[in-house]
Amino acid sequence: MWIAAILVSVAPAASAQDDSVLEPALHYFTRHDAGEILELFHSVRPDPVSDAERARILAMLPMEGDKRDLDTAQLKKLAAVRRVLELHRREAVYVIKVIEVPQAAVALHARAVLLVSERALDLLDAEELQALVAHEAGHEYFWGEYFRARRDNSQSSLRRLELLCDGFAVITLERAGVSPKRLTSALEKIGRYNRDRFGVALNEDNYPAVSERRRFVGRLVEWLGRSRAQ
What we know:
- The protein has helices at about 1-10, 20-30, 35-45, 50-60, 70-85, 120-125, 125-140, 145-150, 155-175, 180-200, 210-230; strands at about 65, 95-100, 105-110, 115.
- The protein is of the alpha+beta class and about 230 residues long.
- The protein has one domain (about 1-230).
- The longest helix is centred in the last third of the chain and has 22 residues, at about 155-175.
């Protein structure tokens, strides 16, 4: 099933740390003034997909595995996600779909549909789900670059782009009053769940190690705090 193939790709990797990827990703943010970081957030945001395009994308999705009978706890977590989407001005753009697939994962499909596996919805707490959604929303800022990197099989570019999306997630979470550490805790949970059941993902080298992502998040948060204090 094609949805399952998309979801495998979000499993965090255990590859070696690579400062040649981390430092350029960090510089993308630190070259700006921290007090104006939200202006960067808004200035590079792409135009959303149109209503007609979203309808076309939704019509192409398979009905199989579309989970609709959600319980109260699941609905409460999804409600928390909307705060993150509001900060990206995507609350009226993304359609959230909970799907039944074996993996625990969150993915953005075609810049229009936020796919959340039921296993991820149950595994993560509300703030961790917000963190992964913030990361996925970050992918829209680098959509074209991401697919060019995939086409060229540029693993270093793909790892750098993952860190850039982590950076947008950090900014989003801070703005939402959520600790950026919830991002790495979510990645660890997702990675551990999927690896225990399915082994190492085929595209694992396309992702930074969780330890590297933790280091990136820590340094970005430290820079934001230090710069704002100054």
